[in-house]
Write a structure and sequence with these properties.
The protein is mainly α. The protein has one domain. It contains 4 helices and no strands. The longest helix is centred in the middle third of the chain and has 23 residues.
Length: 111
């Protein structure tokens, strides 16, 4: 597998993890079976894809991208679809997360 295929796996892992995280509220504390199974399955698939991607890519870069992009994406979903407020502090925090992912990627690209 090449780097492009590995990055595609990371992108899919992000989408799957974000979908699972978006379903967390529907589990009602893991008391509802189907949403709970969906969340656990999403996390398992996401980690399996990450495990495959890190055979080709640096784990530090992959994890930074996966967690940073996933965090930003679920925050946007929270604001747009789950009725969560968007404060200045939240916006600044998300900006710092994205900036951190960019810096980690730039640092990894030099090696």
């Amino acid at each position: 597998m090449g780097a492009a295929a590995a990055w595609l796996l990371v992108a899919i892992a992000i989408v799957v993890e974000v979908a699972g995280t978006a379903l967390l509220r529907a589990t009602e504390g893991f008391t509802r079976l189907l949403p709970s199974v969906a969340v656990v399955a999403a996390y398992l698939v996401s980690f399996a894809l990450l495990a495959k991607a890190v055979t080709e890519l640096q784990v530090s870069i992959v994890y930074a991208v996966w967690s940073g992009v996933g965090t930003a994406a679920i925050a946007v979903i929270g604001v747009l679809w789950l009725g969560e407020p968007l404060s200045t502090a939240k916006l600044v925090g998300l900006t710092l997360i994205v900036a951190g992912v960019v810096v980690v990627n730039l640092a990894g690209a030099t090696h």
